[in-house]
Amino acid sequence: MEQVFGVTTSALEAALGEVIGFRTADDSLQAVSRRLEVLGEFRTRSKIEDDPSFQQLIPYVALTCSGSVLLLERLEKGGEKRLHGKTSIGVGGHVNPEPPGEDPLLIRGLRREVEEEVVIDLDQADPPELLGFIRDRSTDVGSVHFGLACRIEVPERVVIRETENLVGRWIPTGDLTLFSEKMETWSRFLSPTIHAVVHGSLALE
Length: 205
Known about the structure:
By secondary structure, this protein is an alpha+beta fold. Helices cover about 25% and strands about 30% of the residues.
């Protein structure tokens, strides 16, 4: 039975304030991850999939390279049936119990998820940068998940590892609007920020 990490909705809102759609973060990924780790706990995934009083925390990572971003399409064999056929710029997923390490749990989970989905050497890439938070209460999926929206700039274009679950291609960030109709809501929220950060029109601390 899969154990996933999350925080009660009331504790999350007390710590970070209300998030509707996308909201820029005002602290580092390390600091936010350590704050949420203290507040959170593992629960059995099957028991909380329809419980909006508990937010499953999802590291949601856009991979960028020289002005382009990795665009994913989720295939029918993927684990989350409610997202099949959708396109996404977010690599990542649930945080499960992880071996001990120097980084906070959420960052260890982020690294594992990225390495599971794409062929990458994270030690050669830039450290993950926290861009903001995502919450979408308009859908069944969104009402029980809370996204930590991040970006990793990679030195060269990576390829998909989970080819049975995902199809990936690199596109210029300026072309993201061409795919918005098929995008999952989190990616629609994040796309303008990714384009702005990549092209230097939005500077984050």
